[in-house]
């Protein structure tokens, strides 16, 4: 019995705490890991910390506290203990929230949460000068309907593989003056319906998915060195000053931009994907043609039409052309027209101006294809001239289908037919060899005089585009 009373009288084992220990683990009601705490004693202890903080200055500091209740409402505790302090500074460090904590509906000057761990932190309807969150390990962090002058997510130590991780961050309907996120380890970041008035900087760290939607950006905005494994989506975001908006050294192989105007956004040193015959460059393209069920995290983002995605490509093409990056501009141009072709009803996908443009020149991007098409057409037309008949210096050459030349002994006539086709394709009048005056030859001549200049023009276009790179 004596040892029991001895423990009761001991001071709490948490460094710097002068309360008497009441729990088996030698800690006071605030610092004990025991989650089955006496709620009255715990709330009284919380009130004492608040009063002490208010008396000493303007900050309430919660250090190493283990919160036992489901979504403990910490700011309500301020009201309950009847002290008034303005402005209020609140620091929460190295605390544990096995059941989560709630900060709601109050004005704060500074809120600083760092080194904490637990299930969830909810920050709702708070007006604050500054909210800083660093090096926390949580399942979920939700910040909603807050107005903050400066919002910071980050780490105070150098980033490494064992960095504390937050599995899900939801930032919803917040108004920030400045927003910074540096070297965070966030599995899924979801920002929606927010606005940033004076500047955003999101850089470094490790992420699985980043989804930013319906969020307006003003002032200098920088996305730097981000490489999410699964998704990197900036969707339907109004960008007020696009020339101050930059995406630099990011992995954009899984990037989506549906509904965000990219025409004047600054891109540099990013990694874009080029895969498959359709040269998929962005996530939107994959989503628009796949129509696969999407991870829940992306929500309704996946309903992207081919035309919407083509519009994004068109903006990227204009953007990169304006910056004289013709290689990437060419790839985006190809994808733009390819999606416009695929958006046509089924027969027209194969018989439209887009499908012919693709067939004849790879949308003006493939000189080898354009030249090969010309060469193949020349061979076929030479064969047709052998069948339709022509004369060389008075000698008539006219084969039937079954006797089309199969031996090298006919090389001379084959070359003469090719010469005739070539002269027609290049709009030169030929007196020798000369086609016989038949309706078939007239039709051939008409086709050649239209197709020839067109295909030569396409070859010139593809070469011009290639050379300008
Ligand atoms: Zn203690």
Jot down its keywords:
alpha/beta, 19-stranded parallel β-sheet, binds zinc ion
Give a verbal description of the structure:
It is a single chain. The protein is built from eleven helices and 22 strands. The model is unreliable at 1-8 (pLDDT under 50). A hairpin with a 2-residue loop joins strand 20 (390-392) and strand 21 (395-397). It has a 19-stranded parallel sheet that branches. It has a three-stranded antiparallel sheet with strand order 21-20-22. The relative contact order is 0.04. The N and C termini lie far apart (88 Å). It has two domains: 61-341; 367-468, Orthogonal Bundle (Helix Hairpins), CATH 1.10.287. With 469 residues, the protein is of the alpha/beta class. It is 33% helix and 28% strand. Helix 9 crosses helix 10 (411-425) and helix 10 (411-425) crosses helix 11. It binds zinc ion. Zinc ion binds next to loops.
């Amino acid at each position: 019995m004596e040892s029991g009373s001895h423990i009761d009288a001991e001071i709490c084992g948490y460094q710097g705490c002068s309360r008497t220990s009441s729990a088996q683990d030698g800690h006071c009601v605030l610092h004990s890991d025991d989650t089955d705490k006496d709620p009255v004693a715990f709330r009284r202890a919380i009130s004492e910390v608040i009063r002490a903080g208010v008396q000493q200055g303007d900050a309430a500091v919660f250090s190493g506290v283990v919160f036992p209740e489901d979504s403990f409402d910490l700011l309500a505790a301020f009201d309950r203990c009847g002290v008034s302090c303005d402005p209020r500074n609140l620091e929460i460090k190295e605390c544990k929230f096995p059941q989560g904590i709630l900060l709601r509906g109050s004005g704060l000057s500074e809120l600083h949460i760092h080194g904490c761990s637990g299930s969830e932190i909810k920050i709702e309807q708070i007006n604050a000068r500054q909210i800083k969150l660093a090096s926390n390990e949580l399942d979920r962090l939700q910040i909603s309907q807050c107005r903050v002058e400066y919002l910071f997510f980050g780490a105070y130590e150098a980033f490494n593989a064992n960095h504390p991780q937050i599995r899900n961050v939801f930032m919803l309907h917040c108004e920030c003056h400045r927003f910074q996120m540096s070297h965070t380890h966030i599995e899924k970041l979801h920002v929606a319906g927010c606005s940033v008035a004076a500047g955003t900087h999101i850089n470094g760290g490790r992420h699985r998915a980043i989804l930013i939607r319906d969020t307006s950006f003003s002032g200098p905005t920088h996305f730097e060195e981000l490489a999410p494994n699964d998704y990197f989506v900036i969707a339907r975001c109004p960008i007020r000053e696009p020339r101050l908006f930059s995406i630099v050294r990011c992995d954009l192989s899984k990037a989506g931009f549906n509904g965000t105007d990219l025409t004047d956004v600054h891109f540099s040193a990013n990694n874009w994907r080029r895969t498959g015959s359709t040269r998929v460059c962005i996530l939107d393209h994959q989503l628009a043609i796949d129509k696969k069920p999407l991870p829940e995290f992306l929500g309704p983002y996946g309903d992207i039409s081919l035309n919407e995605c083509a519009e994004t490509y068109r903006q990227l093409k204009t953007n990169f052309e304006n910056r004289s990056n013709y290689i990437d501009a060419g790839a985006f141009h190809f994808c733009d027209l390819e999606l416009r072709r695929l958006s046509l009803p089924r027969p027209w996908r194969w018989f439209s101006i887009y499908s012919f443009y693709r067939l004849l020149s790879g949308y003006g991007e493939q000189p080898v294809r354009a030249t090969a098409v010309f060469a193949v057409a020349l061979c076929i037309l030479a064969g047709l001239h052998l069948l339709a008949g022509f004369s060389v210096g008075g000698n008539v050459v006219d084969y039937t289908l079954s006797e089309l030349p199969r031996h090298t002994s006919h090389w001379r006539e084959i070359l003469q037919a090719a010469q005739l086709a070539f002269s027609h394709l290049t709009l030169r009048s030929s007196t020798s060899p000369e086609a016989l005056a038949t309706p078939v030859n007239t039709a051939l001549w008409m086709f050649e005089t239209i197709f020839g200049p067109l295909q030569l023009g396409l070859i010139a276009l593809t070469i011009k585009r290639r050379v300008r790179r």
